[in-house]
Design goal:
The chain is built from ten helices and eleven strands. It is of the alpha/beta class. A six-stranded mixed β-sheet has the order 7-6-8-9-10-11, with helices on both faces. A five-stranded parallel β-sheet has the order 2-1-3-4-5, sandwiched between helices. β6, α6 (about 160-175) and β7 form a beta-alpha-beta unit. The two termini are about 25 Å apart. About 50% of the residues are buried.
Length: about 325
């Protein structure tokens, strides 16, 4: 998997009209479902669920969801929904790629919009990527400003292209404000294991790391115990420990889900890659407020972040996009 995949997915939005469209138009309303492998408390799933709740409320759609669905149950749940006349299914297919795509193939009249690291499948399996490398780079600049030890860490789940890209972008950002800083990454081998993430964070604190990227739940709690500074991930996590979280790298899929629903209602839904929307410019990515750290981040750093943000949106600065495994210094 290389960065060229990102360009391909962006291009797929432009050529959507060329895809075979099997999904019929639903002019009045939609019956939508969300399916997730992890608990809804997991930030990535939480953001998808909240976006779908908002969409359903605004449009009057019917929405129900199932979380913590085991891979062995995915096919049964998806097929049952399709048999029941559901129009659209949103969810997480990272661990169920073959299963989800097989069911989608059997029900071409149903629109599938799933997180995936693989390209869309015609006619009805659209994808998004969950990428947040742009705000991760900006958060790295903040981390480099706030570290006193010069040691910055990140606790993550497993090696995935999108996760690697955000961690590498975060690291690149730290070098802007702290060129001589050291970076360490720890993978816990699970998407949802707060105790293990907490243990990994404590181990980092014992190595002198004082700023940590909380890519998994459990990190911020440990940071609070060890007097570390944390950067939240995917959702605004300041509420977990306001005195610890400097900001969060936010991913909000609402614009993506809205665009997909609009296409389904208009009868133009097709197998496209929506990852071209996952950026600052479309409001899918952004930095959360600095909260208790607002006075601790120097004015010149804030100005530089605003300048970089504007340049990213304008396309005059491109955040490095590197899907290779992140390396510790």
């Amino acid at each position: 998997m290389t960065s060229t995949r990102r360009d391909i997915l962006k291009g797929s939005l432009a050529i959507a009209a060329l895809s075979t469209m099997a999904v019929p138009a639903y002019a009045k309303s939609l019956r939508i479902r969300g399916i997730f492998e992890t608990p809804v408390e997991e930030p990535f799933v939480k953001q998808m669920h909240l976006a779908l709740v908002r969409l359903a409320k605004e449009r009057g759609y019917e929405y129900q969801s199932s979380d913590s669905v085991k891979a062995s149950d995915f096919s049964r749940v998806l097929a049952q929904w399709c048999e029941d006349g559901v129009n659209m299914i949103f969810g997480d297919a990272y661990g169920t790629e073959k299963i989800s795509r097989r069911v989608a193939r059997d029900y071409p009249e149903v629109a599938f919009v799933m997180s995936s690291s693989i390209e869309p499948t015609t006619p009805n399996f659209a994808t998004f990527y969950g990428q947040i490398n742009e705000p991760a780079y900006l958060a790295g600049m903040i981390a480099g400003t706030l570290t006193r030890s010069g040691k910055i860490g990140a606790v993550s789940a497993v090696s995935l292209p999108t996760t690697n890209a955000l961690l590498n972008a975060f690291r690149a950002g730290t070098k802007v404000s702290a060129p001589d800083s050291q970076f360490k990454v720890a993978l816990i081998g699970s998407f949802f294991d707060p105790p293990r993430a907490k243990e990994a964070t404590i181990a980092m604190a014992e190595q002198g790391i004082d700023v940590v990227y909380a890519e998994r739940l459990g990190v911020i709690e440990a940071a609070a115990e060890r007097n570390m500074i944390a950067i939240g991930n995917v959702t605004d996590q300041a509420s977990i420990a306001p005195e610890v979280v400097a900001t969060s790298v936010v991913w909000d899929p609402y614009p993506i889900f809205k665009a997909a629903a609009d296409a389904a209602q208009a009868g133009t839904f097709s197998a496209v890659g929506y990852s071209g929307m996952e950026n600052l410019a479309n409001g899918v990515n952004y930095l959360a407020p600095f909260g208790a750290f607002d006075d601790r981040i120097p004015a010149d750093v804030k100005a530089l972040i605003n300048e970089k943000s504007a340049a990213i949106v304008a396309g005059t600065f491109v955040v490095p996009y590197d899907e290779s495994d992140p390396k510790s210094d």
